[in-house]
């Protein structure tokens, strides 16, 4: 029956160039703006990125940077399938890229790590492509170190602001599409029934650009008029029961329903079989469902930061399943040191898992805390946060020697997939974020697949490996 799933139709990455609504070359401060005297070319820059672990100001394991701290902890379902990254000085001195990626399926940990490493480079490449097209256009620049006043002045120029958003939107859409295309054609990584979510942000001065798929979430801690901390949800958990998502999936002959003993978890199913049961509407990979409504087209949004905005938290659903937005903001804002905030948040989530789901296997948790004022604790907190070599090794399951091809890491079939909480569903409709791509049913580049994650049972989707085994050869 697995042969009924067609994988022959593959979406190709659009080769079209920018439509002109792009940021001119000097705007992002990459350092290669087409000038004849530029010593370092873009190809040189990309070549240098092949040695990602040695790139300065890029962290992807438990620790801290100048403006952020990150922490991940393995759950009780096998290898840690979460990945995270903070990349400061991403394209200029005042630009930071952050991302959290939650893998699922037999090879989900490899998919998440591959996306973590490759997606930022693709975003960088498409932004440079937009810049190159606008080289010499003489249009107004948005420099990487733009101040708030610069942004406010630019707002007066509506068309210019529209072009800024258009350039970033196009870069996010193209990079996500190219990422999924690469996963589909990867020679050593089977993404047929494996995938990953992605929540990514770029902070450039007072501008915040966001692209995301799946159910990992970003929120912001900000102060209200009474100087009290409040939580602002920045992204929408793209689950199958959201009206627009469900409509698209059903239009593509996919089915959306929850199991009788798991009524709070809507899932995506094949039209002819009760599999695989994906608990999200968009994801990278998961090509067994790509023709049935699951897509990888990201939601995109832009926000102007103010002085009241204090920090941003990105986290996988292992955190949001047990903690509310308000609780997360309270935990981070009350942490004794900023560099310990991510660890304390994960520890709090672990305690809540034991209290709320005592018979369930705790999910993996990954957290990125980005402090918007650019300040961190002056002291070194590795010993204070118990970041011992043993902790790093147990939490990352060999992240330091990760391989995109999976040669050093065997798939973990005992992974149970994400337990969903119904309490959050009431909040999704309030956000009203628009689905980019007008909900088209184009074979989206990304699919995130989540098998049954029974609270007390083992993974019941024993037929899933057959999809991979019976996958037609290209």
From TrEMBL:
GO molecular function: metal ion binding; protein serine/threonine phosphatase activity
Keyword tags: Hydrolase, Magnesium, Manganese, Metal-binding, Protein phosphatase
Lineage: Eukaryota, Viridiplantae, Streptophyta, Embryophyta, Tracheophyta
This protein's name: protein-serine/threonine phosphatase
Region of interest: Disordered: 1-21, 131-162, 419-450
E.C. no: 3.1.3.16
Superkingdom of this protein's organism: Eukaryota
Family, per entry: Belongs to the PP2C family.
Biased composition (Polar residues): 131-143, 440-450
Reaction equations catalysed: O-phospho-L-seryl-[protein] + H2O = L-seryl-[protein] + phosphate; O-phospho-L-threonyl-[protein] + H2O = L-threonyl-[protein] + phosphate
């Amino acid at each position: 029956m697995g042969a009924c799933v067609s994988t022959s139709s593959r979406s190709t990455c659009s080769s079209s160039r920018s439509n002109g609504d792009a940021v001119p070359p000097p705007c992002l401060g990459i350092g290669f703006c087409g000038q004849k005297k530029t010593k370092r070319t873009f190809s040189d820059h990309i070549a240098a990125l092949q040695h990602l672990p040695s790139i300065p100001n890029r962290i992807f394991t438990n620790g801290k940077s100048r403006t952020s701290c990150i922490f991940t902890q393995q759950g009780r379902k096998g290898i840690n399938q979460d990945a995270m990254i903070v990349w400061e000085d991403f394209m200029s001195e005042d630009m930071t890229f952050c991302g959290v990626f939650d893998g699922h399926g037999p090879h989900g940990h490899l998919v998440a790590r591959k996306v973590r490493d490759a997606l930022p480079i693709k975003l960088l490449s498409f932004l440079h492509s937009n810049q190159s097209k606008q080289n010499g256009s003489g249009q107004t620049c948005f420099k990487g170190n733009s101040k708030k006043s610069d942004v406010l002045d630019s707002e007066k120029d509506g068309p210019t602001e529209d072009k800024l958003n258009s350039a970033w939107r196009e870069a996010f859409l193209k990079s996500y599409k190219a990422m999924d295309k690469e996963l589909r054609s990867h020679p050593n990584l089977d993404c047929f029934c494996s995938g990953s979510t992605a929540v990514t942000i770029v902070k450039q001065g007072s501008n915040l650009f966001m692209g995301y798929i799946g159910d990992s979430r970003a929120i912001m801690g900000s102060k209200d008029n009474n100087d009290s901390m409040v939580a602002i949800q920045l992204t929408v958990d793209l689950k199958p029961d959201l009206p627009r998502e469900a409509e698209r999936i059903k239009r593509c002959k996919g089915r959306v329903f929850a199991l009788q003993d798991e009524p709070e978890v809507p899932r995506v199913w094949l039209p002819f079989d009760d599999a695989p049961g994906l608990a999200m509407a968009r994801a990278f990979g998961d090509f067994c469902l790509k023709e049935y409504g699951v897509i990888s087209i990201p939601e995109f949004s832009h926000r102007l930061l103010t002085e009241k905005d204090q920090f941003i938290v990105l986290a996988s659903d292992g955190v949001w399943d047990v903690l509310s937005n308000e609780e997360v903001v309270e935990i981070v804002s009350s942490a004794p040191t900023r560099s310990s905030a991510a660890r304390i948040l994960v520890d709090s989530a672990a305690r809540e898992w034991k209290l709320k789901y005592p018979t369930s296997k705790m999910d993996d948790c990954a957290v990125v805390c980005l402090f918007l004022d650019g300040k961190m604790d002056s002291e070194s907190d590795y010993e204070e946060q118990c970041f011992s070599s043993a902790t790093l090794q147990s939490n990352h399951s060999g992240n330091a020697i990760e391989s995109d091809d999976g040669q050093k890491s065997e798939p973990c079939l005992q992974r149970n997939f994400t337990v969903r909480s119904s309490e959050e569903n009431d909040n999704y409709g309030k956000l009203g974020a628009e689905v980019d791509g007008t909900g088209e049913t184009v074979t989206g580049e990304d699919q995130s697949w989540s098998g049954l994650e029974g609270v007390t049972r083992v993974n019941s989707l024993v037929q899933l490996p057959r999809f991979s085994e019976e996958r037609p050869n290209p």
